[in-house]
Amino acid sequence: MKKYLLLFIFAFAVYFGYGQVYKITYHVTRNNQVLNNSDPVIVFADQNKTIITKQSILDNTFKQTAEESIVDHRSKIIYKKSTFQNKRNIFSADSASYNRYRFIDKDEQKTILAKKVKKSTTSVNSNTIDIYYTNELPLKAAPNEVGLAKGVVLEYVRNVNSGLVATKIEKINDFPAGYSIPKEENVLDILTYRDEVWKSKFIQIPIFNNEKICFDPDNVKSDSILRFAAGTVLLKKVKVPALLEDSQAFIELIEKSNGDAYDRTGSVFLITDDQPLTFLDGMNKGMSTLPKYDVGDGKDYLGMVRTNGYSPIFELMRFFTPFGVSHFNDRLTLKGKTWQDSVTYRQDVSEFLSVMSGKEIYIGTYIGNYDKGGHMVNLELTIHPGNSNYAHKTEALSLFNTTNVMEMGGQTYPTLFGSEKGLEVEFELKEDISKARLRYITTGHGGWWNGDEFVPKLNSIYLDGELKFQFTPWRVDCGSYRLYNPVSGNFDSGLSSSDLSRSNWCPGTITYPNYIDLGNLKAGKHKIRVHIPQGPAEGDSQSFWNVSGALLFEK
């Protein structure tokens, strides 16, 4: 009797599809149109388990980290599986997502692949999600984790105009190999899993890790990290792998005070060897070995402009430290204010990939300060797959950089704009170039209240005698960064020094480049001129301008 009962149960299960494995293919939709050339989502499922993957993963043609889901319906756990380029697999377990979303069923039905489906709606991160699901199959499946508990989701729609729709349902003999429920000892906690997956998707090039940058001439020691100018400049040689043309690069600096209470000029820069003489020669052998720029004011402006045979540094990022973030957080307690622990400066520098790819380069950081404690910094370069909209196929040529990063090593302050000549740079192109533009960073400094730090000044850029661009660099948003400035000076007016508007910078911010269109340029010699009406010195206080310029172009 028992034998016949088991045979009956087996026949019943087969008839109604229990134990049967299904394969469902989903394609991307845009504005109600199916995109048949998209990488299809492939779902395998029976009543106990669902696998969510993609065709490129099954074909082993994926180019980045491949992430899949294995759903155990009995325990209601969604296991995430990621496969890296080196074929290493990692897993995590998530029991919260199975029934995370609350759905509102709608009185709306339609047919998809001969199955009657019902509409249900939820919200995911402020996005309206509509699913169309059926209970005509004895299993639970979906092209993602949304709606898994409802039945078989045959269509997923995000904000009305995009989504996934099932284009084929098949009965198959079994699940593909390699998709067993992972053992507990192989499952990572969710934060560790996410961190490993995120970092696997791009190239990380660490440069400085919690390094001190300070003024301490008696204790300047170099190892893998080179230190110059009494310790106010850090430099490291890094190797950048050969990169795909469609890549993007970001530089990220984290800074906190280690004893210096003041706002300081900072710069992240790159040294290349496209000419026989480089800035590194001046750092190693003395700045006097570099070309002088003479405006007739009796000062030698060393290594600041391009010459035939010498290239100045590329400035990747101009930043400004706030007043004592972290180190001085306990000096002033204010009601309703919590001081930040550090400052993170992050900037897209994709326009410089052509001078980095497949090369050994020097990347450095400068913070002008006179404190033995100084600042602590972390610096990292990351390179990500994907085309950069503004820097695709871009070449770069360094033209000028007046920021005196070797301030304690022989470079004077750039007061050259006080002369009639100002800044003039002649450069020669060996061939015609197109889409030329000047990447221009400018900040005004010094002179106390009447100086150029606090007085707007017009910047004018000329190419071959023709005015190309004029603007007045000025920041009025400095008060937004008050919580990074615990020991900024406070005035009787109720303002803090860090609140005050300045010539294109604020304590605790990046100064972004301007991109000035120069058009198509012919081979031969050209001249860039920068004019700024620099204010006069007042006693021992002087105004000056830190400007940097790189020529960006396509060949």
Mean pLDDT rating: 94
Cα end-to-end separation: 85 Å
Output the number of helix runs: 4
| Computed CA radius of gyration, to the nearest angstrom | 31 Å
Low-confidence stretches: 4-17
CATH architecture of the largest domain: Sandwich
**CATH topology-level fold name of the largest domain:** Jelly Rolls
| CATH class term of the largest domain | Mainly Beta
Structural class by helix and strand composition: mainly beta
Largest beta sheet, briefly?
13 strands, mixed
Domain Peptide-N-glycosidase F N-terminal: 204-383
Keywords: Disulfide bond
Protein name: Peptide-N-glycosidase
InterPro entries: Cu2_ascorb_mOase-like_C, PHM/PNGase_F_dom_sf, PngaseF_C, PngaseF_N, PngaseF_N_sf
Structural notes for this entry:
This is Peptide-N-glycosidase. Residues 204-383 form the Peptide-N-glycosidase F N-terminal domain. InterPro entries: Cu2_ascorb_mOase-like_C, PHM/PNGase_F_dom_sf, PngaseF_C, PngaseF_N, PngaseF_N_sf. The chain is mainly β and 555 residues long. The strands form 7 sheets. Strands 1, 2, 3, 4, 5, 6, 7, 8, 9, 10, 11, 12 and 13 form a 13-stranded mixed β-sheet that branches. A 6-stranded antiparallel β-sheet has the order 15-16-25-18-23-32, covered by helices on one side. It contains 4 helices and 35 strands. It folds into 2 domains: 20-197, Clam (outer membrane lipoprotein receptor (LolB), chain A), CATH 2.50.20; 202-554, Peptide-N-glycosidase F, N-terminal domain (Jelly Rolls), CATH 2.60.120.1570. Mean pLDDT is 94; it is low at 4-17. The protein has helices spanning 2-16, 55-58, 190-199, 279-285, and strands at residues 21-30, 33-35, 41-45, 49-54, 66-72, 77-83, 89-94, 104-112, 115-124, 127-134, 152-158, 162-172, 187-188, 203-213, 226-228, 233-239, 247-257, 265-271, 277-278, 292-293, 301-302, 310-311, 314-320, 343-348, 360-367, 375-385, 395-401, 423-429, 433-446, 459-463, 466-471, 510-511, 514-521, 524-531, 543-554.
